[in-house]
Each structure stands twice: as structure tokens, then as C-alpha cells.
Amino acid sequence: MTDFMSYLVLGITRGSMYALIALGYTLVYGVLQLINFAHSEVFMSGAFGSYAIVHLLVGDGKGTPAWAVPFVLIAGILSGAITAAAIAWTLERVAYRPLRKRGAPKLAFLISAIGASFFLSQLAGKLFGRLTSNSFPAFWDQNHIIFHLFGAPVRTLQIVIVGSAVVMMLFLDRLVSSTKLGRSIRAVSEDAPTAALMGIDIDKTISRTFIIGGLLGGAAGFLFGLNFSLGNTMGFLPGVKAFAAAVLGGIGNIRGAMIGGLVLGIVENMVPVVHIDTSWTDVVAFVVLVLVLMFRPTGILGERLGRAA
Amino acid sequence: MRTRSLAKIAAIGIAGALALTACSNSSSPSGTGLGGGGSSSNTSNKTYKIGFQGALSGDNQQLGINEINSVNLAVDEANQKGDLGFKLEVLKSDDGGTADKAPAAAALLIQDTAVLGVVGPIFSGPTSATGKTYAAANMGLISPSATNATLTSSGFTTFHRIVPTDGVEGTQAAEWLAKKNKKVFVVDDTSVYGKGVADVVAKTLQGKGVSVTRQGVAATTQDYGAIAQTVTSSGATAMFYGGYDAQAALFAKALTASGFKGLRVTGNGGKSTVFTSGSGAAGNGWYFSCGCQDATTAPEAKAFNDAYTAKYNTPPSTYSPEAYDAANALIDAYKTAVAAGNPTRQSVEDAISKLDYKGITTEVKFASNGEVAQATVNLYEQKDGKIVQLGNILQQS
Amino acid sequence: MSAPKRTNPRTESLKRLVSCLLASLVVALMWGPQEGSFGNFWFGITQSIFKPRVLVFLALGVVLFLVISFWPKVVPYLTRPGVGPLVSGGVTVLAAQTLMHWGDGIGDSKFGTVATAVSNTPGIAPLTKAFFGWLCWVMLAVIFVLAALAIVRGIKVLAWVAAGLSLVAAVIAYVAHHSVVTYAHLLDHSLGVYVEIIGYLVIITAAVVTALSSAEMAEGRVAVNRVLGWRPGLPLVVLGLVVGLLAFASATWFSPQNFNATMSDTHERFRGTGLAPLAVQYLIWLGWTLFAVTTLVGAAAAYLRNRVLGWVAAAGGAISVVLTLITIYDFSKLAGQLHVDSATGPWQNLGAGGWMACGAFFLIGAGGFIAATAHGSVREALARAADSDVVASGRAASTQFLSAPGAMRSGIMLAIAVALFYPPTATGFWQSVLVSEIGIYVLLAIGLNVVVGWAGLLDLGFIAFYAIGSYTTAYLVGSLPIKPPSWLHMSPLLAIPFAVAICLLAGLALGAPTLRLRGDYLAIVTLGFGEIIRIVAVNADGVTNGSRGPDTQVPHPVIHLGPIHITWGLNQLQYWYLLLVFVVIVLLAFRRLENSRIGRAWAAIREDEVAAQATGINTFQIKLLAFAIGASTSGLAGVFFASQVGFFNPDNFVLNNSILVVAYVVFGGMGSLPGAMAGAALLTWLPEFLKDQVPAADRQMWIGAVVLAMMIFRPGGLLPARRRAIELRGFDGAGSQPRAVPASEGM
Q1: A90, B206, C11, C34: which has the fewest C-beta neighbours closer than 10 Å?
Q2: pLDDT of B96-132, one tens digit each?
Q3: Is A153 an interface residue toward B (CB < 8 Å)?
Q4: What is the pLDDT of residues B1-34, one digit of tens each?
Q5: DSSP collapsed to 3 states, B59-116
């Protein structure tokens, strides 16, 4: 039981990060019906941006007073989110909008996003080195055990990750369901031409959708870097997994992405519980994905941003 | 649409010019300036090239960069010393660390007649893909890091390596582990190197009656939480990780987070400053078994360490010292071949086979199958962010 | 697009200026060898931006801004006669002075290296020193500016001056290069100076055109079209003539290491060594005679549109190719026997002359062939043209040249000539790249084109089938830990049907449960499949030998068929021709498929699956078929790869490669076979080319940038399929409806 709960806690931690990234995929898919393949690099740039700020604030991390830690964390999340949002906005302007104006085929968007993804991750590698195991300065005791959940230790960092993810997701849910911007996002994802006729500025809506996705992805980048490591290729795998999570939940569906992310994170961490070698983790994840899609061809919650939110 | 056709013409012009660049033939040894180039009898102006084949791009490029830096350093030092009697250059060829790009990388080195010997290929896969080609060209190879045991029995007649195979360090590490532990968890990164070492460790441990749990975790993994939790809950008193430094660092952090208190050991692939800086405090208390001298503290290696750090702004990392030795050994072979007059690839290869060169990590002296003479395996430990040598692993308790 | 926006022109141009400057900063970040690290976080950025060199990039950004802003004003000048040649000439000279080789044996023999070596040499002629030091750049700049001024302002005197200066520049370049070669006693095979001269010649043409500019000369293209456009085959013959002249006049017939021999030199070299009489005669007179005769006949056939002469030229070309090949074989074999220089045996790359001659003969013969066979269609086209009077109208005529009858086939013939006769002249490195990277990925792209381009299914796990093909081969030849039963143990080429069949089955197995999924769901499932296959290959130690790859080498292919014995060894050329056979077979089959009922069904599904279903197409079966056919092609590629390299491991089958193949297909132009092939060839060639230009690790960044730029400026890809091109432009220009993405894309 203790073991099971430990894995579950790890799974929820990882899953909430997946969910944050998956939201970026799903939002963009909602308005454009396109997989934003470069979202993984948006996530990566968030981690880098927050590193720059956190490093500036705490140096090598030694001697950071305890009262400053929450502020550093908030600064990290904010700087990551803002950097990533800026990158996402630029990405939309450079890699999506010109193609949209030309009425390019759908695959062309995919390839331009892939090109952008290669470009961004390698440019980051050129500018900041290509090591994959960089870490944030150790400015707090992130492994301090706060309490035990059915015997499984729950640590500060895990609380921070899950907590901030939940806050952001609630915020997003509110935003999409009851603000003007949210309504236009839903309208565009429901039927773009009609939305345009109703006076919604499609360009602006799409731009803002990218920004929202970037904010979430950048925050996830910071949390991910804090928990694991950061490097220029850090985006690729979480990107693929989050994409899978978005599809698992029903792509284009915001709550679906949240659930899909959590499910995928938990499934991946449950691999040792069922006594499968951890080197098969990705196989297990993908098999689960395929099985779900076989029985629910549009994911757990089904598609459509508009309907579910 | 006249403008568009303009662009087309320009594109065709560029493409044509670029395609033509591929046409010119390879170069031959000659002087660097134009001055004495013609008088080829004057050997003091001759330039020979040292080939380097390795991963300079792709997933494992960091190892390639560690090594090419050392090779460049060794060649620069040799040129500056001024007692060579000829000039040396490095010709690097990127194989991306994969077998499919290796043939072209090898062809690039072979077609340049100034290249008489090669440091590399640095990985086992590319070596398997090109060993025959190099053998057919009589090109001597000294690999600093291709450790797959089968390479020296595959008929690659010109292949040598200055690292012991996965077997050597694995066996002795396992013997040391078996002295105190009854239950050991062995983890590998599913790479050729990591799995090779881990296999040997697990097998030796089982032979000694130690209970072994075995798991793999892909080298691309970023989240080691699950595997760390598994190690911790398994109740093992020691853990061996077969894999490279960057991943070992992440694993170290995850193990600390999950509260693992047992012995943590890894092999040569993990022993580097990348591990030290990546793992931070979590890396303290890790042990490393390595068939090498300590390139950061051993006196004969101090100079290398300083020069490398000064030149590249970063301390030497995994396989840097080995590559430095390989390059110096190859330079030594070049010297022998040049001294005998009219050096060819064959004469350099002969000189490599007869080498007896004292390097900073090992005594470079090859058996007839290309394996380096057995080195002692040392045990290291990271203490306070520094990896220190504890001495011969067999004498450790 | 949506609600009408009021845009202030000043803020608009300010925005544009800022984005141009930002773009130039990004380029500044990309340029150069600097590398940062986390330890020194801002190093990479400070090195690239906070240095004086950033001013150059910013200036470029400003230039870009000016060009974009004043584009409407620039355009009229661009249509002036002579602009085209001027730009291409200038670019050619620039390329010659930056990228090309100028003296073999001097370092990497690039222009910069040679220039440094020259400046370090005290005793060399001052002119040479000046040329390599500064003169070359000054000349180029002055001439370019003069010619541009002449064109823009229509000053004829200036044009003549520019032409004269170009001539002088070309002569100076030649003299300078020559003095370097003689001074250093180099044995030079480099082409830089010749390309430079060609560039200057083109600029001279531009200047002369400007100087003589009158209504007729202004549209020089019309004149060219009048001669070439309606005479199918003539362009090929002309091209053959040029190549042939280069081949027969050049000293590259026997140039292994320390020789540069023309035909007669080669004859002298082998005098009295028992060279076969045919080869001797060929080198003395036969070669020239054949060339003269076939050229004459070919040109006459094409010009007069004479069918009989066409066939004669085709036959003459074919015979000449064979005779040339025999000659090359004879003397290269003899050279090997005599151990002349670095010669080791027949078919070795000992010089480009003979192969270029083969190419020339082939082109002339092909020109004759096209002239002979395109007879009827020309007549029809001419009749049509006479009706609509398109020949007289300049713009229509300029499009005619490339769409005239026989143009398509001329292109194909040219491609064949290059594919057959270029590789032998390439260096070992490029031969290897051609085979193990370009060739293989071209084959894979052809296969994936069926799935992605034709049927419109996004497959992100295509490499898995390639892996299956490779592993099947390794199993059948006995290289894996599990051995096949002895009756199944076979040589690699025999494994082809098995590998293809197994990949086909794998395609069905993957497709059957998943093809009911729509677009992006399919993408992630195929991606997962690709990863699953790779991870299984890594983890199934006992079956695949894990990440180590097959322990024993996969043997090279052999053919023992009656009297025919062909053994493939380490020579890459052999593999190239084998691969060429594979590609041609696949291409022929797929071309038939494209225009068949199935091909049309794929197109229907791609455009609108629901409508396709409504018309009675069994969409599921048809999609499955696409999957299986694509998969089986990569099975073929797998067999070839395994037996050519002899070794592989799961690292060759990573997800990134799957994504890359999709990128190749779309980059080249979805749904178009030439496009997919061109895309794969270009994007696999690019990293190898960039090897010498940028740090190795940066190559993927540049490729990403190239792909991105291509999709932005040409979303249809390099050579889009005709049907796709229409979709993109629409029959009547761009659609004006507001929509996020084209709704018709039923991917």
C-alpha cells in the first residue's frame, strides 16, 4: 500500500505537469485543428527563461533565506510563463499565421512547426550549451517531507507542483468558460467562419490562445526543471507525452487534457507496481493510449473545446 | 511573375555552385603556406592529419565534444612542442553516433590521403558499421570509448582501443560490491555501454550468491522518480547504475529524493564533472569504478587537466582523458612512422600495434587483437562535490 | 481577414522595421562558432550580440526592411533586361569566392584558406596577392554596382564599361589562380576559378544585354523559347554539347593523384602497355568523332523535328556510351594492374572526363530519342499555339519553355543522366552519402509519400517498418541471436520478398485496428507504434541482441544467377546502382498506381473522406492498402540498409527519423513523387554540405530554419503535385473566405 501510494504521488506530480503542457496542445488544437508540434519548445523556453531569472535572484542558491523561497518560486513560475508566452506568440506569428494567410495544407503547418521546433531547441543548445542535466540552483529544501499520505511521503516540491498546476487549471477553466476571451476561443473552435461573421477577431483570438498555452507550458517548464533537469532537448519527450495525454483525454477538450495528463502520468509511474521493467514504461503508456482510443476513438472525454467547457 | 523566376535562377546558380564544390578531389599532404609546398622532399614542412570520427551532433554529442576537444588539445601541444619534424592537423568527421551515418564519416577520412590514422570511432555502433572499411584501407584506429566486447573479435584488423571492455570494470566493481552487500539493485540505461556493464555486474554478483534485482530505464528518461522509488522499496543495500554521467546525475537526485540510503555505484561512464555539477549534493557518496587514473588529481594528469580547462573553459569530462591518450598515442605512432621514412597508413598501423606509450589514464600497449593491456580498476568516490580516488578497487574493503 | 482594421502606415512600417531588426538579431545568434553553457549563462548571447559584428546583421536587417518597404518600387527594375543574369552571375562569383575550392593541397583548399596561404607567401606576384587579398571583392562589388546602375538608369556606356571590367576580372582571376598553382607546384583539380569565370561571363552577358537593349533583346527569353521551346530534345542536345565539350577538352581523363591527363595524354601514358586497341583508337580519334557525329545528328534531328534522324541520334548516343564505358574500363583496369599512381582496379574514380563524356553522349542520345518520339504531340501543340497565338505573346511564351511537349521527359532524362554518370566522379565521401543517406531516404520518402501524400494519412512511425525490414533481413541471414532454420537461411537479396511481405503484414496489423481513427489520433498512434517497435528492439535482448545491434555482420548482397555472379563489397558505387534499380522499380510501380483506380480513390479520401465513402469507395480497405504499400517500400529500404552497412542498432530507428521522413515528403511537395524524392535528397544532402560550413552541432538548427522558411514562403513544398498546387492557389486565385485552416483538408 505504501509503495502503491508513493508511486501514485509521483504519478500525480508528473501527471499534473503533463496536463499543463497538454493544455497548450489542446487549446491550439481547439482553435486551429492543428497539432502545435513546437509546443515542446515553448515549454523548454519557459524552463530556460525561469532559470535565467531564478539564477539572477538566488545565485548558486546557498544562503537563500526561507522567507524568500515562495517569492523565488513565484518569480520562477511567472518568468517561465512569460518567456514561453512570448515564444508562443512569436511562433504563431512566424510559423502559423503566414501559412494561414496562404491557405496552406494542414501538413504544411505540421512541418513548419517541426522546423520551428528543431530550430528553437538547437538554437537554445547553441546559446546555452547542450548538456541535458543542468539543474536549478538548490535554493530550498525541495525534498522536505510535509506529511504522509497512507504512508507515502509527500514532499514540498510535489505540493508546489500539484498546487500550482491545480490553481492554474482552475484559472484557465474560469477563463474559458466565463470571460469574453474564453467565449471567443470557444466560438472560434466551434466554427471559425461564423465566429468571424459575428465580429470576433480570429487573428487576435488565435494569438491569445497561443499565449495562454504558452503561459501554462512555461510554468510547467519551470516546475519540470525544478523537479528533474533542464536542457535544450528537454521539451521533446514531455511534448510527445503531453500530446499523447491531450489525445487520450480528447484533443481540443480542456478538461480532457487535464484528465489525460493525470492518467498518463499515473500510468507511467504505475509500471513498477505491476512488476514490469521500467524500460518498458513508454511501451505501456502507448499501449494504454491505443487501447483507450480503440474503445473511445475520440479520447476519454471526447472532442470539442466548446462542448465540454 | 518575373521576380519568381529570378529567384529560381539565383537558386539554381547557388545549387550548381554548391554541387560543384563536391566535385574537386581530395587533397594530399603538402605545406601550409605556398612557400615550400612544392619541395615535397623537405619533410619538416609536411602536414599530416589525425582523423577523428565521433558523434559531434545528435543525442550523444556531448561525449564526442569531450573527446574532440582532447584530440585538438593533444595536437596543438604536439605542434607547439616543435620536436615533431612535421605538422599535424585534425580532420574531424561527424557520425552522429549512429551506424547509418558512419560509412560516410569514414569515407571522409579515408579519402583524404593526409590522414594516416584515426582516433575513434567513439561508439560501438559506428565502429561495427565501419570497421571493415577501415581495415580495407589499412587505417589504424584507436578508440577512446568503444567498449563493446565483440569489436575486437569481428575481424576489424586495424581496430584498437585504450579502454578496457565493459567486462573489466564491471567484474571488479561487482566483486567489491559482493564483499558487503547481500542484495543489490542493478539498473542500466539500455544503451550499449550501460547495459553491457550492468550485465557483467549482475552476472558476477549472482555468481557470488548475491541476490540481484535488475531493471532498465531508457537513457532519454528525465523523470527517475519511479525507478528510484523501486530501488528504495526493494530493500537493496546497494545499487549499481550502468550508464552515462548526465543520466546518472538525474538518477542521483531522484534517489536522494526518494530517500535511498544504500551504496550507490556507477562505472566509468558516470564519472565526470557533468555528474558532479548535475547531481549537486545528491551525488556525494556515489562510488565509481573505473579502469583509469584520476585525470583530475593524479600528478601526470594535472597538466592535462589545467590545459584543457584553460582552453575550453570547462573541465575535462567523460572520456576526455582517454581521448587525450588516444591522440597522443597516435601522434607517437606517427612519429615512429615518419622517423622510418615515407609514412603510410600501413606503417602507422604497424607502429600503433607496437606502441608502448605511457598515458595519463593507462599504459597504451595493445594486444594483437587490439585490446589494451589490462589496467588496474580504481575506486573513486564523490566527496563534497569532488571525485577523489580511493585506490585499487580490489584492495578496498 | 476579419473585421476591417484601420492601420496606420507609420505604425505598420515601424512594426516591420522592428521585426526585421529582430530577425537580423536571430540570425546573429545563429551565426558563428560561439557556444554557451549553463555555467556561463549569457556567454552565447553576449558573444553574438554584444560585439561589433552585430552591426553588420542589423544593417542587413535595415536593408531587408528597405527592400520590403519599397518592394513595389523595386519590382519594375527587376523586370529590366539583364537583371536575371546579373544576379545569378553575382551570386555565382560570390559562391565561388566563399564556398568553392581554389587549390587542392592547401589546407581545406577553400578560397579563404588559399587566400591566407597566399598572403603568407612573400615571393608571389603582387597581382596574385592583391587578388586574393582584396581585389577580388572590390572587383565584384564595383562591377556589380556599375552593372546594376547601368541597368537601372539605362546607361549604355556604363554597361559596356561593366562588361569590359568583368572580362578583366575574369582574366585576373585566372592569372592569379594560375600563378598560385605554378608557384606551389600544385596538382590542382579545383573548380573555383572556373566557376568564377563563368560567373563573370554571365555578368558580361547581363551588361551586353543591357547595352544592346531594345524591344527584341529585352525579352531574350522569348528568343530562347522560340528556338528551344518547340523543339523537344534540343535543350538536351545543347546541354550534351556543353558537357561534351567540357569533357573532351579537359585534362581529367586520367587524374588519380599526381596526373592530370587529357585524352591524348592518357593515350601517351598507356602507350606500349598493351591497352586494348578499341580504347587506344577511342582516345586518339574515335571519341572526338563520335561526339561530333552524334551532336550533329542529334541537333539536326531536334531542330528539324525529324523522326528518323532522332532515332539515329539515339542509337548513336547509346553506342557511344557503351564505347566510352569500355574505354574507361580498359584503361582503369590496366592502370590498376600497372599500379599507376593510386589506381587499384577497374571502375575506380580516376577522373571525371570519361564519365562526363558518357553523360554528354547520353544526353544527346536522349535528345534524339525525345525528338523522335515527341513528334506528333509537337505538331498538335504547334497547331494549338498557332490558334491562340501564344508564341507571339512574351509572357505566355516564357511559360511555354518548361511546359512544352517533351519538357517533362527531358527533365527525367537529365535526372537519369545525372544519376548514372555523376556518382562515379564524386569523392568517396559523397558516394557514401549518396548511398547510405540520400538514396535510402529517397526510397523511404517514396514509400511514405503513398501514405502521407496520396492517401493523406499522417504516419509518424514510419521508421518502424524500416526497422522491421532491417531486422527481418538480419534474422534471415542469421545475424541475430535467434537463428532461422537452416532451410530459411539466405543471402540478403533473397530476403527482399520476405522483408517486404513482413512489413506489409506489419502495416496491415497496425492499420487494421487504428485506421478507423481520424487524422491526429492516427498520428499519435503511429508515433506510439514506432516507439514501441524501437523499445522492443532495445529490450528484447534474446531476439534482437538489444541496443548492441546484430552481433555478426549482415553479409553484403550477392547475386549468383546462372552465369551471372555479382558480389557487392565495400565499393559504394555498386550499392548506388543497386539502389537505383530498386528506386526505379518502385517508381515505375507507383506511377502506375497513382493513375489507377486506387490512386484516384486515395485522392478522393484525402480530399473528403465522407464524400469518398458516399461514392462507394471502401475507404477502410483503400487506406489500409496505402499503409501496407508504404510499409512494404520501407521494408525494401530496410533490406538494402542492413546489407549495405552490414550493421545497425535501434538508434537508427528513433522517432526523430520518422518525423524527418514526414518532413522530407512535405518539404518536397506532398503527393508528388518527384517532390518527395527532391525533398528527401535536398534535406539529407544539406547536413552533409553544412558539415564544412557551420559547427556540426548547429546543423539541425539550420535545417529547421530552412524547413520553416520553405513552409512559410512555399507551403506547397519544393515541387508540389499538380493537384495540390491547384488546391493551394485555387482555380481563380486565393479563396477569400475567413477560415482558420482549409476545411477541405481531410487528413
Answers
A1: C11
A2: 888 888 999 999 999 888 899 999 899 888 998 899 8
A3: yes
A4: 334 444 454 455 455 544 444 443 333 333 344 5
A5: CCHHHHHHHHHHHHHHHHHHHHHCCCCCEEEEEEEECCCCCCCHHHHHHHHHCCCCEE
- Decide which of C598, C621, C654 is a domain's last residue: C654
Q: Do C645 and B94 touch (CB under 8 A)?
A: no
User: Considering only residues 236 to 265 of chain C, which have any Cβ-Cβ distance to chain A shorter than 8 Å?
Assistant: none
**What is the tens place of the pLDDT at every residue in C370-428?**
888 876 666 676 666 666 544 444 444 444 555 566 778 888 899 999 999 999 888 88
Query: Domain spanning B166-290+377-395: which superfamily?
Result: Response regulator (3.40.50.2300)
- In C550-571, which positions are buried (b, 16+ CB within 10 angstroms) versus exposed (e)? bbbbbbbbeeeeeeeeeebebe
Indicate the number of domains in chain C: 4
Q: What is the reported pLDDT for C547?
A: 86
Asked if residues B80 and A149 have their Cβ atoms less than 8 Å apart, the reply is no
Q: How many residues does chain A have?
A: 309
Instruction: Please compute Rg for chain C using Cα positions.
Output: 29
Q: Which residues of chain A are within 8 Å of residue C47 when distances are taken between CB atoms?
A: none
Sequence-distant (6+) residues with CB within 8 A of B305 are B295, B296, B315, B316
For residue C182 the three cell numbers come to 605554378
Three-state secondary structure of C8-66: CHHHHHHHHHHHHHHHHHHHHHHCCCCCCECCECCHHHHHHHCCCCHHHHHHHHHHHHH
- Residues recorded for chain C: 747
CATH number, domain A2-308: 1.10.3470
> Measured at the alpha carbon of residue B288, what is the angle toward residues B287 and B292, in degrees to the nearest 5?
150
- Return the higher-pLDDT residue of C459 and C32: C459
Instruction: Specify the pLDDT at position C378.
Output: 65
User: Scanning the structure block, which residue is given the C-alpha cell 605542434?
Assistant: B79
Contact criterion met (CB < 8 Å) for A32 and C740: yes
Domain that holds residue C399: 224-425
Chain C residues touching A123 at Cβ < 8 A: 26, 29-30, 701
Going by their DSSP bridges, the two strands B238-242 and B183-188 should be labelled as parallel
Give how far B134 is from chain A: nearest CA, Å: 31
Calculate the alpha carbon distances from C92 to A169, C162, C194 in Å.
Answer: 56, 17, 11
In the predicted model, what is the mean pLDDT of residues C156-178?
89
d(CA A101, CA A42): 23
pLDDT at position C311 is 93
A54 contact partners, CB below 8 Å, separation of at least 6: A72, A75, A76, A79, A136, A137, A139
Q: Is residue C735 part of a domain?
A: no
Distance (Å, whole) CA B124 – CA B102: 11
Global pTM reads 0.89
Verify that C192 and C251 share a domain, yes or no: no
Domain ranges of chain B: 43-164+301-364, 166-290+377-395
CATH 3.40.1030.10 fits B43-164+301-364, yes or no: no
- Name the residue in chain B with its Cα closest to that of A158: B257
Q: What angle do CA C612, C615, C621 make, to 5 degrees?
A: 60
Residue B376: strand, helix, or coil: coil
